Amino acid sequence: MRIQIICPLPANSVYGSQVTALRWAGMLHELDHSVELSQHYGGTICDLLVALRAEKSAEAVLQFRKRHPNKHSFLVLNGRDVYGEGLHSPVVVEAMRAADRLITFQPLAAERIPVELQPKLRTIYQSAERTAAPPRPDPDSFLVSVVGHLRADKDPLRTALAARRLPQSSRIRVMQAGDCEAADLLEQARAEALANPRYRYLGPIPRWKVRQLVASSRLLVVSSLVESGAAVISEAVVNYVPVLASRIPGNIGLLGEDYPGYFPAGDTEALAALLARVETDACLYQELKTRCALLARLFLPEREQAEWKKLLAELNVVKGNHQPKRLRASA
Q1: Alpha carbon distance 176, 203 (integer Å)
Q2: Are 170 and 279 found together in one domain?
Q3: Is the pLDDT of residue 79 over 50?
Q4: Could you tell me the pTM of the whole model?
Q5: Please, are residues 52 and 76 in contact by the beta-carbon 8 Å criterion?
Q6: What's the mean pLDDT when you consider all of the chain?
């Protein structure tokens, strides 16, 4: 089967939707399908269109349905699609109606989807491979990692600000990796790194370094105000790295309602207090680590691939005599 995946991010992005698109392309290729990655839909003939980030890819779904009314399309909803302005956009809602399936990354997103569209909704947890031979944690510090694009909806400097409020005896240091297109946030991150001895901003780093950073951390913090179901949580959990997360639906949908590592979104004092507790309370730290170990099965690559196989089978898509299998990317 010929599948085109539309991801509106640059092909060299090492965070977010582009990572998801590349991982899915590999899995679908392993399932014996031909896959093409593109930033835009340009009229390519395919059997299935998979469009990520509905606010930016809704038009692709609508164009595809108009040109090929008998072909299939999936629309993948991110955090801003579900919890931001996406559902208020007539174009996004029209594309949701046109798509054969709507894909989310955590089950609580269903609470936001219009009732008439919920039969189309499917949840696919984002998977991650366990990092082989990560660097050992520095015994003289307590490394806390923050990973992802520096955007306002990620509340990216919350952990750095919380680190300022830790007692002098704390060994916590925060390392943050992520691209930043907003000049004001980039300036703030650089200024914070100069003023805050506990904080270092690494900027955009290669994917393998991101994985090693997470796997070698004592904690990962996800401070987002809006989130679809962060892939970096999967990466931490499969490496048994405890997660501290803002109490928002996108995080609760992955970690569970009773997970003990939440703090109120945007609350610097609460995060600082939780960081201090986790660093000094061995029982709490072990509880978080155990909970993550129990959650790891949700994020196994074979589970994600099986969900894709099941999803394609739902549409009675039968592989035909198409061109030889290939995996290529185009701008």
Answers
A1: 7
A2: yes
A3: yes
A4: 0.90
A5: yes
A6: 91
Residue 277 in this model has a pLDDT that exceeds 60: yes
Q: How far is CA 66 from the centre of its chain?
A: 30
Instruction: Write out the two tokens for 112.
Output: 């936001």
Q: How many domains does the chain have?
A: 2
Per-residue pLDDT at 11: 64
| Secondary structure of the chain as H, E, C letters | CEEEEECCCCCCCCCCHHHHHHHHHHHHHHCCCEEEEECCCCCCCCCEEEEECHHHHHHHHHHHHHHCCCCEEEEECCHHHHHCCHHHCHHHHHHHHHCCEEEECCHHHHHHCCHHHHHHEEECCCCCCCCCCCCCCCCCCEEEEEECCCCHHHCCCHHHHHHHCCCCCCCEEEEEECCCCCHHHHHHHHHHHHHCCCEEEEECCCHHHHHHHHHCCCEEEECCCCCCCCHHHHHHHHCCCCEEEECCHHHHHHHCCCCCCEECCCCHHHHHHHHHHHHHCHHHHHHHHHHHHHHHHHHCHHHHHHHHHHHHHHCCCCCCCCCCCCEEECC
13 SS3 class: coil
Indicate whether 74 belongs to any domain.
Answer: yes
193/13 Cα distance (integer angstroms): 23
Domain membership of residue 67 (yes or no) is yes
Please check whether residues 148 and 202 belong to one and the same domain.
yes
Question: Does the pLDDT of residue 327 top 70, yes or no?
Answer: no
